[in-house]
Amino acid sequence: MIAVTACLVLPLAAALAAIPLGRRAPRLALVAAPLILLAALAVATEIWRTGPAQLPVGGWLPPLGIALVVDGLSAAFLLTGAIVTGAVVLFATSIFSTPDRETRAGFAFWPLLLAMWGALNAVFLSGDLFNLYVALELLTLTAVALVALDGRRETVAAAIRYMLFALFGSLAYLLGVTLIYARYGALDIALLRILAEPDAPTFVAAALMTIGLAAKTALFPFHAWLPPAHAGAPAPASAMLSALVTKASFYIVVRIWFDVLPVAGNEALAMILGAMGVGAILFGSVLAIGQERLKLVVAYSTVAQLGYLFLMFPLAGSGGEAQPWAAGAWNGGVVHALSHAFAKAAMFLCAGLFAEAIGHDRMDGLKGVARTMPLTVFAFGLAAISLMGLPPSGGFTAKYLLLTAAFAGGNHFFALVMLAGGLLAAIYLFRPLERAFAKPAEGSDITPIARWRQAVPLVLAGAAIALGVFSAVPFDLLRIGRADAAQEGLE
Amino acid sequence: MTPALVFDGLLALLAVAAAMAAIGGRDLFGSVAFFIVYGLLIAIAWVRLDAIDVALAEAAIGAGLTGILLISALARVERTASSGESGEGGRLAKIAAALLCAGVAGALAWAALALDPQGAGLTPLISEALPQAGVGNPVTAVLLNFRAYDTLLESIVLLFALVAVWSLADDGNWGGLPGLRQHARSDGVLATFGRLLPPFGLVVAVYLVWAGSENPGGAFQGGTVLAAIWLLVAMAGITELPRVSSLPLRAALVFGPAFFLAVGAIGALAGTFLGLAPAAAKAIILAVEAGLTLSIAATLALLVAGSPQRTQG
Amino acid sequence: MTPIDLYTLAMIAAGAFFFFAGTLGLLRFPDLHSRLHALTKADNLGLGLIVLGLLPRMGDVATMLKMLLVWVLVVGAAATVAQLIARIALPGHLRSRPKDDGR
Amino acid sequence: MSGALGHSATLFALTGAALVGIGLYGFVARTHLLRRVLAFNVIGSGVFLFFGATGFRRPDLGADPAPQALIITGIIVALSLTALALALITRYAALSGRSSLEDEAPDDEAPDAGDERGGG
Amino acid sequence: MNTALPVLLLATSLVPALVTFFLREESERKRNAVNLAGAFAKLGLVVVMLDGVRRGEDYEFRFAFVPGLEMLLQVDALALLFVTLSAFLWLLTTIYAIAYFRGGSDLSRFFGFFSLCVAATTGIALSGTLITFFIFYELLTLSTWPLVVHKGDAKSLAAGRRYLAYTLAGSAVLLLAIVWLESMTGPVEFAAPSDLRRLDDMTLRFVFALFVLGIGVKAAIFPLHGWLPTAMAAPAPVSALLHAVAVVKAGAFGIVRVIYDVFGIALVAELGVGLPLAFVASFTILYGSVRALQQRDIKKRLAYSTVSQVSYIILGAALAGPFATIGGLVHLVHQGLMKITMFFCAGIFAERAGITSIDGLAGMGRRMPWTAIAFSVAALGMIGVPPIAGFVTKWYLGIGALQAGQTWVIAVLAGSALLNAAYFLPLIYRLWYQPGEDIVRADAQALERPLALIAPPVVTAAAALLAGLMAGLALSPLGWATLIVERTYWP
Fold first, then answer.
1. Which of B27, B50, B118, B213 should one mutate to test binding to chain D, selecting the residue with the greatest count of D CBs within 10 A?
2. Sequence-separated contacts (24+) of B35-38 with Cβ below 8 Å
3. Average pLDDT, whole number, for chain E?
4. B57 and B162 share one domain
5. How far from E240 is each of A92, E86, E203, E346, E399, CA to CA, in Å?
6. Is B282 found in the same domain as B163?
7. What DSSP line would sit under B192-223, residue for residue?
8. Which residue of A283, A395, B5, E352 shows the fewest CB atoms closer than 10 Å?
9. Which chains have 3 or more CB–CB distances shorter than 8 Å to chain A?
10. Which of A92-101, A289-298, E76-85 has the highest mean pLDDT?
């Protein structure tokens, strides 16, 4: 349908047009963003009415051609991506617009951001494993470029470290895809769900793809690159990186685990993912507590929150035989991914505003910021509530679903880790909040920030809370076309 | 053991040896040289695997262009950084890494041997759908019709690699000329070679793109030849690469993917995204390939030249 | 073994020999210029012989011309590169090269 | 390993696997950044060789075009990533005079280096 | 079945909160108007509901989140008891705070969180399911933290940190208990208690202990009371709010709900967990009183007194006889009235006369007569001197203990009465009988201004007196408590 194509064509067309436009690129982005948001909404309403759809590109049916898949999961991620990126575009016009003459960062930011948006939409819509690879590479390329955008030694080093992990991840994933093709002669996810059986090539392929994507999602043993990269990037870029880029590779892991390999996914691999997830939560949180720079605290928090996402696999019984609580874990993981996207984007934008206002990024400069920048502190607070998984936020709904799945499934250990993770999150998130509420230190000159710029993160943080309060609607959206392994459970 | 298998065995051994030399070599320039040799051996392997298009691509891009990029990067890094090999990590780490790699290779081999020897993949389906694809060469059919969406994304990836490379310039040099100043003597050997070769190069490039629809060749291979020609002419000092901020250059870079996207969008309005009617498929594919060749040539040349280093000529 | 096969075998053997000679020269000759000399002369000749050896097996004339074009291009490239390397390797040349690299 | 051995496709598949192993060693064990990019390319071509070889198991039907097209796409993507990686390494060498990330502490931050007031 | 009223009741404090957040700091008049209007509206609604519930009207509002997660606002007699108390005291505390903070800073923020906190308290009172209770329980923690750290100095920040550590850890334990229970029995509603037989006795005892641990933090049961004394660093209106209106009462109310509506008295008795809880409560009563004796600072002494007084309510609930329950429930109101009076007076002494330590009270009876009278009435009520409200509680608790056959409780009550006398009488003695500097009467009026600061404690003292005197009336706290006990626990 037209809306799905618009979701793909518009961001890519805008990205291409932004290169020759140069100085006028911000205006182009401001025009393109609402259109893409509209397209994403249209896709969501379309499948809400008519159910999931498979659109063969160029008319060629799989296994020959590539098919775009539109179901609840993809529509939800499309919509979240559109809202977050739309807000980032609006926010970035105040930083990267250079009306008089074209600067390097001013030129490079807009095409890269719009191309990243196109890549995200391509990942969320594609139903073909190799197509996901190419879209993932476009995403990684733009992400690495955005990390190194302000050209300092630390950020270039962080970009190189990110690149090395990303290269390793993409090769492992590509190797898995080649094995799948060699074994089944098909790359389409819907087809593979029928063909897949547990044998040597499928198991090796599943292991390689999962490890590759784990490296790209910065899951625990592969997380070293994320904090310096996400903290070094300019604020709008780090919002995109933490909120959406890591989610794209997680989205693919979900597609593989629950659509392609429900049969091959055995307990061992799921347990390893779970262990890595636990490691991420504990390790990420402890490191976040020890940080002095606000952006690094937020970045390490991403490492920790990503751990929750991967707890979904052991809890949902790796999709093999559909346990009754599988749906709870599946929905919990996805809702957590969405609410984390909103909350983390808001938090990084706030961190950017704080850094701009106090001139540096260290947390002790935040004293008394609640008085001069009340809106930003309020947005940061709301985002923190969602990250800590406290009601009424989306984070709480996700944590509740995952906890019920953990208890029903009998693995109490994961439940305890999740609760501990919530407490640790409270520790490292209340440290900055506490400084914000403290009395302002004398002689700290805080440059005032325009109110509309402070409103942007507030809208995103509000969305994270709304995902919890009005969670019935997203839950029904996610249910459309959900993999059969994740059907049973709570209902 | 048929002679063909002997040749393949030798080729495989040579390739593995070249790879080991490239990876394990002490001197960095030697490693890069071995990498280029390794690339050519792999290209021959593709010929042995009856995949001529891939052989062309591997030779032109895999070995050639990547080799040039490595050499120019090596030159620039040697000039600025202490090339001393810093601590290589303990022996234990090395052994562990070696074991890990052996494990991965072993798992791959185990999976490969477990594959069904009669597996034919998509060959039957493609040959059956080839008549509606508008082109004779099945690889071009897959690239530009059956899986055109992949190629579209890939051309955008290439273009944005250039945008990313440009974004790594110094702020002061923005808007300047890409790459370093060249020092060719105007009457020297390179200058004459730079005037003699371009006509041949253009003919070969156009032929590659045109022949691509029926037998091996295509936009990427043709684009690489064009890029090589443009670089040679620039190195010979005959012309100067255009400024980064010049509009025609940016238009040329964007034209290929933009035209491809436009074709896809128009197809979408008529029903299916990137849908090519069998009748008009050949014309559209060739038009798209021409556009892509132009953009790929410009992009590859500028990728080799690198981010803008100079503000005046 | 038809006469054509014999002819091809002989020519390719000769070509291989010249390649071997070129490589031997590369390894044994004392200084850069003589090694350059060995490489360009022997290898190009070797390639020429191989191309000539393969011509009768090509089938149509167009492919034959393409084979010859390959040889011509290799010879042209080898000659130019040899000239450049030789000029740069001249003893007095390195010091006089202008140093402004547009830094 | 029934009749598979007497067949060049399997030979090249095993070569591909070996190349991936060698490349991975170079990627993991060496510290010089250019060597790691070179190793990445070796792994890349090894993966593609493996992929192409599995596409040639039926010589009677000719090489399977689908893997060929995917490999060409893969080569271009690998080139793009290599170009960006090399540009980053060159830039890093110019800024820091170092050619490896060994002594680059992950997140130590010069106190005012994080000055954001400059913005875009 | 009227669904609008519960939501309206919640809105009367939620709407002023959200409006106040976005008001500018300078618009004091608008802010006061909004908050007072909210308070009066709530009081009006409460009155309407009081006679509604007496006539057996049923108020209920359901709002579905994700399946298995449902918000149910239900107004039963017990809920109304708590809502009436908080509505009445919210009005008075708002008046008191407006006078107290004349010319202070960050007031929009203060009153925003202040109303949010009362909204959370109302939510706790009205919650019909465990999950709703948890949602508002968390909201209460989040909205009270900024109040505790309102001054922004090191002491209040440390108090805030300690408060968070206790309450967030408690909430994690509570969430663990809720999810553990609900994963076996499905969503637990207070009105329709589901049979918990599916879990074996040992797990049930452990879950009950978790519940008490989780909610006990807010009810300041020993050893979880640590945060209460340090929270004295907060300004007086906040201390009044924390101790009398919201936080501590929420804890006690929660434990009552768990005992009566989640587990049910029969199961609690059968499991034999009632008695240990009674022991803990009794120990806290004595411990609190002893520690109060050692304090020299007025507010610290009042804080420890609260620790001991709240345990009366828990003791009543734990004994679970009809009279003990009435005693416990009615003390919820009485303690609120008396303790808020004393905090108001402590605030006035500190703010107007700069007295914070007990010795400073010498001769204040003459200088600040109204405040001193109110303070004395409340102090005597605390000791249990008839006819003030405190006596009623102790009387009913005593009879309840006899009825339940736990004669040792009488000794505890007597002992605590003596201890209360030991730490309150010296204050009264200093106020009236110890000569301070003889200040001319004219100066007396100077101290006790403005009226809005002095009136609230006098009103609450009068209310405490009336609650004791008119205990027989149907609409008095005692009458209402008897109604609750008759209607729900012995139908």
1. B50
2. B35/B63, B35/B66, B35/B67, B35/B70, B35/D38, B35/D41, B35/D42, B36/B63, B36/B64, B36/B67, B38/B63, B38/D42, B38/D45
3. 86
4. no
5. 46, 11, 38, 10, 31
6. yes
7. HHHHHHHHHHHHHHHHHHHHTTTSS--HHHHH
8. B5
9. B, D, E
10. A289-298
Residue type, B189: V
pLDDT at res. C53: 92
Do E and B touch, 3+ Cβ pairs within 8 Å? The answer is: no
**Interchain contact, B124 vs D71, CB within 8 Å:** no
Domain count along chain A? 1
User: Which residue from A234, A243, A437 is spatially nearest to A352, judged by alpha carbons?
Assistant: A234
Identify which of E123, E9, E23, E135 has the alpha carbon closest to the alpha carbon of residue E69.
E135
B107 is a domain residue = no
Residue A39 lies in a domain: no
Which of A14, A4, A10 shows the shortest CA–CA distance to A53? A4
The DSSP element (H or E) to which E71 belongs, if any, is strand E70-75
Query: Got the DSSP string for A371-417?
Result: HH-HHHHHHHHHHHHHHHT-TTSHHHHHHHHHHHHHHHHT-HHHHHH
Q: Are residues B9 and B65 in the same domain?
A: yes
Q: Regarding predicted confidence, which is higher, A13 or B130?
A: A13
Report the SS3 class of residue C23: helix
Q: Quick: pLDDT tens for E348-377.
A: 888 888 888 888 788 788 888 888 889 999
CB A65 within 8 A of CB B146: yes
Q: Which residues contact E202 (CB under 8 A, 6 or more apart)?
A: none
pLDDT of B142 > 60? The answer is yes
Residues of B whose CB is below 8 A from D77: 154, 157
Which residue ranges make up each domain of chain E? Answer: 273-491
Query: Which residue in A68, A131, A185 is closest to B119 by CB distance?
Result: A185
Tokens representing A214? 């784990």
pLDDT (tens digit, 9 = 90+) per residue, E83-93? 988 888 889 99
Q: What is the CA radius of gyration of chain C?
A: 18
Total count of domains within chain B: 2
Whether residue B256 is found in the same domain as residue B198: yes
Q: What element of type H or E holds B309?
A: strand B308-310
Please indicate whether, in this complex, the C-beta atoms of B83 and D99 are within 8 angstroms of each other: yes
| Structural contact between residues A186 and B120, judged by C-beta atoms closer than 8 angstroms | no
Q: Please identify, among B63, B80, B97, the residue that sits at the C-terminal boundary of a domain.
A: B80
Euclidean distance between CA atoms D113 and E116, whole angstroms: 40
Interface test with A, best of D14, D54, D109 (most A CBs within 10 A): D109
- Please report whether residue A187 resides in a domain: no
**What single DSSP character describes residue E243?**
I
Domain range spanning residue B12?
Answer: 1-80
Query: B87 lies in a domain?
Result: no
User: Any idea where the domains of chain C sit in the sequence?
Assistant: 3-91
* A180-204: pLDDT as tens digits: 998 888 899 888 888 888 888 888 8
Q: Nearest to residue E352, comparing CAs of E444, E225, E458, E219?
A: E444
Domain carrying residue A324:
289-491
Decide: E227 and E167 in contact? Cβ < 8 Å: yes
Q: Tell me the per-residue pLDDT of E94-144, one tens digit each, with 9 for 90 and over.
A: 898 888 888 778 888 889 999 999 999 999 999 988 889 999 999 999 999
Residue indicated by tokens 């190629």? B151
Residue of chain A nearest D119, judged by CA positions: A95
**Which residue is listed with tokens 């006398």?**
E421
For residue D114, give the chain A residue with the closest CA: A360
Using CA atoms, how far residue B169 sits from A26, A145, B35, B173, in Å, is: 21, 12, 28, 7
H or E element in which residue A54 lies = strand A53-56
